[in-house]
Fold each of these.
Amino acid sequence: MFRHSTRTCLVGLCALVAAVQAAPALAGGDPGGASPAPHTAARALHAQTLADLTTTMKGEAYAYAVYSLFAAEADRQGLPAVGRLFRSTAQTELNEHLREAATLAGTVGSNAANLRQAISGETYEHQVMYRRFAEQARMDGDLKAAKLFSEIATDEGRHRDAFRTALTVVTTGRGTIPAPPKADVVQVPAGLPKVKAARTRANLDTALHGEALAHAKYMLFAAHARQTGNAALARLWEGTAEVERQEHFAGEAVLAGLVRTTRENLRTAIAGEHNEATTVYPRFAKRATAVGDTAAARYWRNTAADEARHAAAFQQGLDRLH
């Protein structure tokens, strides 16, 4: 498992560089959902810094989702202390590291801007990405993956339509925000991959990172909706976020064989945290420093130190199992 995939980002959900340039700060008023003024801090960031923040958000969102699955497997194996370690680390990745990166990037805008961003991503997944993944999986003989990709494509179309309706309500003040969808929760036991083709495995990796990021972003959008007094929109974001994580991400994780034994899961986590602490985030910090993005550089230095502590904690957890 690689926390930071080198594959191409999803056009809609992962290409935040274009989106953040039109988005305001995380906080602030949102009366009626009119187009907001650009977030000056985000616009001032160098393009490479914004791209690196996108990569960071993808990795932190993915880590949160994966560590949550690893925690559940540790519980099933009768290892509650390891389960607690995975859960606490997952919360740090989501509620500290990802949130701070989103603040730097100006990811969250007005309710209307957030809906437009989500509509774009869901449209791409519905019309292009998952349909292509399904067709390729069928060609490669991975029929279970083809079926899942097709089902998710349909779901993403429903999400897009709900967000379109919500956008009309937000911008006109007329109508009703759709009720939130309910996730058909998928359990993810330890197991080997259930696909055979390298192309299917690559597509699953792309999809997993996209679903994890969608979940994280939608939870940020939900918090903003609540801050601006729109509880119905917040519920729509939260319900959709849970479909993305507990149904889509989880279903893809089963096919990818993402969860193994707790010993293997700890080794995977140690490798990922060590890579971020020693390679990925120091490189991002160095690049940000070179272009004068000092706040971003400081964020990556601090986060690298956190990840080093996570790696050490996971190593201690692994040592206790021997």
Note: The two ends are 23 Å apart (CA to CA).
Amino acid sequence: MKLVSVIVPTYNIEKYIAKTIQSVLAQTYPHFELLIVDDESPDRSVEICQQFHDPRIKIIRQKNRGLAGARNAGIRHAQGDYIALLDGDDLWLREKLARHIEHLENNPDVGVSFSRSEFIDAQGNSLGIFQMPKLKDITPGHLLCRNPIGNGSAPVIRRSLFDAICFQDDLHGTLEDCYFDEHFRQSEDIECWFRIAAQTDWKIEGIPEALTLYRVNGEGLSANVLKQFDSWEQMIAKHRARFPELLAEWENPARAYQLRYLARRAVRLKDGKMAVKLTHQALKTHWQIVLSEPNRTILTLAAAYMLYLLPLAFYRQCENLALQVTSMSHKFRIFRDQLFLVV
């Protein structure tokens, strides 16, 4: 049985970390080590972690380096054949690891196995909607435009793949092996996935089940929409000279998709003015997204304007109705794909 190294960065998540650890310890796949990386958390997160007495748990302490730095520390300490990433405020379903290990063992050309994710609120309640990305035939261009993996708690990755993209950096005064780029405090996920897709022959492939519970709240870095876009632009600037042909073809469409994604995030944050502005920027950047994905683009524009123009109470009623319809659609697609997709 292959060993899985589960890496959980810990910083300011005392409200959630206990349930996150419990979701790992409850896995039906038992052969794992749980590496909790204390990124100099100022709250009681580490104290809570120390209350769990399981020999598979190891706590790694370091000066604050951000999410990328915490993950790098975890990977350097990892002993497993597979690396599973889990953010400290998200949760896994019990069969998460088992399904991914089965997927990877049955598909030796797949380097990254990810699942769909279900959105939960700050209290852990299901929002009834899911991340529904493309699962197969993921190209570097597609990944640059959309990030099918969705979030940092969805993938399980071969250790040999991380070894293939390893680089050395002395950002903190000592030359160290790195896998995520610590110059990024946002967009570190997509920057890493893009390097995997552009530099290696490994496939990135998803399984149809929603095995990750992804927490949506306004407290994390993802709530800062403008900084997130700046970080994305930083990633593009980094790779423009390294992959000139790829970026020449995909940079402009990818920027439009990113702006549209951030517009939807602004809608979730109930910032109608920003949502309208970002949607307009997306269409100005690459209007062809209306042709390539008409439903999503038009719905984003409609939601932005409704939020901007309508009274908030009325908008919330419309939003609740739309969420109910979306929830039914997502659940049907997951059920259908579990029946017909072979992974």
Note: The mean pLDDT is 93.
Amino acid sequence: MIAQLEIKNFRGFSEYKIDDVGQVNLLVGTNNCGKTSVLEAIHLLKSRGEFSAYLDIVNQRGENDGQKVRVAKDFRSLFYGFKFDSSSVFSIQSDKEEQLMTSIRKGKDNSMYMYPPDDREQLNIICNVKKKEKEAVVFFENDGMTQREYKPTLLSPENTKFVPAYSLTTQKVITLFDMISLLPDEEFVLEAIRIIEPDIVRLVPVGGKTFSEKDTRGGFFVKSSKWDERIPIGSFGDGIWRLLGLALSLVGAKDGTLLIDEIDTGLHHTVMSKMWKLICATAKKLNVQVFATTHSSDCWKTLADNAVEDEFADMPIRIHRINKDRKQAETFTNEEMHLALNRDIEVR
């Protein structure tokens, strides 16, 4: 697990550091302070240079304007100050001797990374990935954005799940559900959505139908002890869908990392405490490191309450206040966040 994170020239950060990273981490701060950027940095680091991770974070923000990413310049928003030339480079590094460096190289003038050169100025993304004694060089080609690996490596992407602020698509949720269907983890997922609707008995996906990336809620029937008929999941509120996505992603991130943007989306403050208890207990059981963001006061306060319970006394739970005008996050430990709560100190 990451214990320290350092970011340079990525998104809105010229340089930034987060020390004392816990197993469950909540990022707080004002709008546009860089909370989501920290999640994206971790996502790229754990991807080990997988091209799909770069595509994911651009698509999730709509930075491709709905168009297919075609050339390297479509990724200019990832570089500090939108600077995109042959001197541009950003790096993301953890304390575990993990480092991902993404730089720009010209494809002209006999660059070892470009073939064949032509009269156009072609800029290409080079990704150097290191972990202890292992190293890989991955090249994102300008024309068609194909990916090629130049140095043989045993590096592979770490198991990482990213839950965006707008929740997971229907097809993604069905895919995650298929992985735990009829297994013990299915009951865990049901327990999660029962936080909001205690009468739910069973959850089944709709058969024989495919869903597009635009479908953001549906694809399941719910059986409740209150009604004889099965009910489409869309008939329930957004909170059920959000908790379903969180629970499935948490199980799917076993021995890996779970990233959640605006974790409280669609959730009423009355269910926050149960949500955090579910996340902390499951992260501890499945060896998952969690990073989440919020704007909600109720969200951090309920986490602070759970952080000092006996069940989690030995579990490092942290709140990190992000301020991109500074070089380092302000971190609150289990005891410090609870002390801030009792003294009515605003952590956000």
Note: The first strand starts at residue 5 and ends at 10.
Amino acid sequence: MITLRNLEKFYAHGVSKTFVLRQINAEVKEGEFLSIMGPSGAGKSTLLHILGMHDSAWTGEFEFLGYPVHAMKPKQRAKLHKQNIGFVFQSYHLLDDLTVYENLEIPLSYRDVKRSERDSIVCDALDRFRIVGKKDLYPSQLSGGQQQLVAVARAVISSPKLILADEPTGNLHTAQGQEIMELFTQLNQEGTTIIQVTHSEVNASYGRRVIQLRDGWVVKD
């Protein structure tokens, strides 16, 4: 599903460069459940955002579902992302001027799901995440944990081929966090590929593979 060849990310300061990622070579097969771990500043979230096609300022080769992402134009990348990837942001990234219901509906509109079908799918998601009572509220009216649940629901609602999750349980209490990880396990068993960034050994244990980053390098796979 994913192939990375000599992928690097750096910031230029005059003639010098500060590297965030160095010579990343990796493959992720369809149906894997992979955790990316490492200390703060190791490059974990940066790598996840490159995989999610939010960041285009990098060098090297990145293939996704056979498409050469490194050679694609921004519009092509955006379309590939919207049709195949669900992303759980560490800082939620919910749209402030839309209700919970409307935030959940947006990924379905990207996939050209008919309006008549959208309502049923959104209602199922609201029920599954036990946030039916929040559907008409705006993100600013939710707690951090509630926003996290909405963010996870939005990422999975359109049954993407790939879910990318940046500390997906960071603002949830233990029981909620366990439920989210069990949901990811179930989705993975149904064929969804999952890549999560986590500091939690417990969360990492739900997957079958761990990549360790340190100072931008892969030190263990």
Note: Residues 90 and 170 are 8 Å apart (CA to CA).
